[in-house]
Protein: Protocadherin
Amino acid sequence: FKKDLYVGSVQENEDEGTMVQGLHGIYATDLDTDANSVNSYKILPGNGEDKFEAVTEELSGVKFLNIRTKVKLDREESSFYVLTVEASDGGKPTPRAITQIRINIEDTNDCSPQFTSSEYRVSVLSTTPVSTEILKVHAQDQDSEQNSKIYYFFKKFLTKTHNDDSFTLDPHTGIVRVARSLDFTAGNLIQMTIVAQDRGNPTKRTETVVKIELFKGLSQPLEVPTGSQEPRFAKQSYLVRICEDLPVNSHILHPVVVHLARLKPKFTVLSPQEIPFEVDANSGFLYLVKSLDFESRQRYEFKLLLTASETGEANVTVLIDDADENFNAPVFEKGNIAMEFQRNWKLSHFVTKVKATDPDEGLDGQLNYRIDDGDGVRRFYIDERERIFSVPGLNWEGVEQLGLVIEARDNATRWRSGKQFVLISVVGEQDCNPMFERVVYHGNVREHLRSTRTFVAVTKARLCQDRKVQYLITEGNSRNSFEIDQCS
Structure:
């Protein structure tokens, strides 16, 4: 084997017989030929052999190793397996080669978020200031990566049923805050349902109940302190990064205002274009009111205006950027492929065209190709149209087979890639220079043997048709202990 360790992956819960991805161009080499060359691969016991099996795929005389599943796999049971694979030939005794393959089990969204409590209770004074944190809900998801990320929101945004809108819920942290002045006369018990939804595809969700008991606080007269300053925002601008799948009506920003004192402010959005955001006029909480589409518009920029009639007004710039994940990796349309290349092609010559697809949109789905690895990496190049060409002016004498690992990489900020192995067989006549099939030959002879007909090594040289070859001993025979038949 060329490497001691290879790495592949497979999705959990896939049907048995699913091929492990990412194992590109794995094969063992053997200097012997025919029946004595590489014959088979097998997974050694104690290495997940009950869950995987080795599969041999032959292309142009080369036997490639692939791995496929024997059962459905559960990532929650084990996130990876390390297999020890043995290659053997057909000779006797049978020489063997060993390599290891790590198989990562990729997550599917098979777990729902779970709240730490089925019900939350909290007591709040009716005079609690706006933006005060009163409660934090929390849920966990046993899945991994994207499937374990959670949004929180009130169920009213799903079912349109009435719920109290005096509170806001941070979709990322689960923090509940007071969104407006609380009215004790509306009742002293407020009950809401909060949903935790993961970011898997399709999504999974669960619910919990929040009960807020409202107590009457001592009201204080509204006064403007003497010598109060004009209110202003604590920052000159706000940059908010949100994901495209953020649920509608999610709270995304609460700008901090200083010198607000006990004034009654009014917040307004100023934008020359229609935007999918609205601000609560009393609290300044900014909400998403329409589904986002960052493919049609990558950034939103607008102003929030704060008006306080007693002391003046202030404004702040808000920038909304895309913080979305790159969901999909490129996938090649074919797995391992084999091609032929003519030895007498001295100029740059087209070999094959590769193609991968990525279902993501925008930059996340735009692909670039390159030759990532392989023993033919210096002999070929790939152009902007995904075509592989040979490098001109190279000597192909003695070259029989070469491998290329082609990588397709998307243009996302957090890019992902896919790979394909191309086996290239160099065919056609050599340049008529004889070549030995082996670099070293071994032979044995008994001492004191006087027979001149004993052969101590069997050699064979390749040569062009209708050409004769002559054998000579050039070094190591200073005592003339050996002679060679110049013809055979």
About this structure: The first strand starts at residue 5 and ends at 11. The chain has five domains: 5-106, 114-215, 232-321, 331-427, 437-487. Residues 331-427 form a domain with the Immunoglobulin-like fold (CATH 2.60.40.60). The chain has a mean pLDDT of 83.
